[in-house]
Amino acid sequence: MSMRCGAAIGCAAAGLSMISDAHAGSAFALRQQSAYGQGSSFAGIAAGGSLSSMFWNPANLSDVERTEIEAVGTGILADADVKLDPAPQLGFAGSDEGNIARNAFVPAGYGALRLNDRVVLGVGINAPYGLITEFDNDSILYQTGVAGKSEVFSVNLNPAVAVQVTDWLTLALGAQIQYFDARLTRLALGPLGVSTAEGDDVGFGFTACVKLMPAPGTEIGIGYRSFIDHELDGTLETGTAGDFDVSYDGVNLPDMVTLGVRQRITDRFRVMAGAEWVNWSRFDTVEVEGGPAPIELPFDYKDSWFFSGGGEFDLTERATVRAGLGYQLSPIGDNVRTYRLPYKDGSLHLSGGVSYRLDERFSFDLGYTFVTVEDMSIRAADAGGPEANGPFSGRADIYAHHISAAIKMKFH
To answer: Is the pLDDT of residue 62 over 90?
Structure first.
């Protein structure tokens, strides 16, 4: 017997020991890795500007003079308001489910050491994926097993080395060591009843990046973060057939390419632009093995894009202000959108930020972004939506405030 359901292990992720909202990046990816980048909607972040830019491009380690560390924290205040349409065939008059997202704090940290004139070592620790969504126990979606609570804990360690080949070319390689833990409650699995699925795994990947400085004042960065495939070992607690030790195969997280450009216009003014492609189409179907029957959890995501542009201006020798605009093309189409992760194309990111250098050693970054997603429809299974939505159609309205801060130290 084979059962397909549109819920998923990987439908939610949490940053380190914290939790993020459902709409921070593409699908459940997190972009909140830099307060400096947050202030300009991450425009040109792959071309540098701060140590935290090594998340997208470790070749930016070439900017390190001797030893640097940076600690970043991002608060996410999110609202994902879900409303259900009437379902006359069930005698259901419709309902307002309220906010299914949760406020969160996402941390990140970086360190770098210059070994000589050509070689710089660096390390970053991040939560590259994250969200949590939750429906109340009295929700009809909770009671029917359409949607309950979805969450994942993830940590990624990224050591890297950058080599300045010439004055205008830097190459970098790095490793990724990623822990990924997922839990999904109120998962309807047909004859197995309403179930809870959970599992975890450690996966490995790499980064390969380049930074070019073809002319004075021009910086171009291209960063690649490889895919990481996970096979989660865990349990499946079913409502009628008992509990099983299972594995979740096919949690194939995407690779990412980021392009960033920074151009100095005057001694005090710079413009930035960036583009990011994420290979979400490889996140297709998760297979549950070891249970009482073959189970498939389909996603059918498509690749996503993020575009951004911005600028920054030095108010004084110590203070810099910046602003930016970003636009996200989501990997989640109308025919695969579920109540566990309602998201669509067209999220708009409006950002502003400031940096202040206290002295030669200490500096601070602050960044803010307002994210809004156009009102979206969620289709019932019999109206072209995924099977996981059952007979319920509805709508979701989403916005979020992202507030980032960083403290940076240099040792000479």
So the answer is: yes
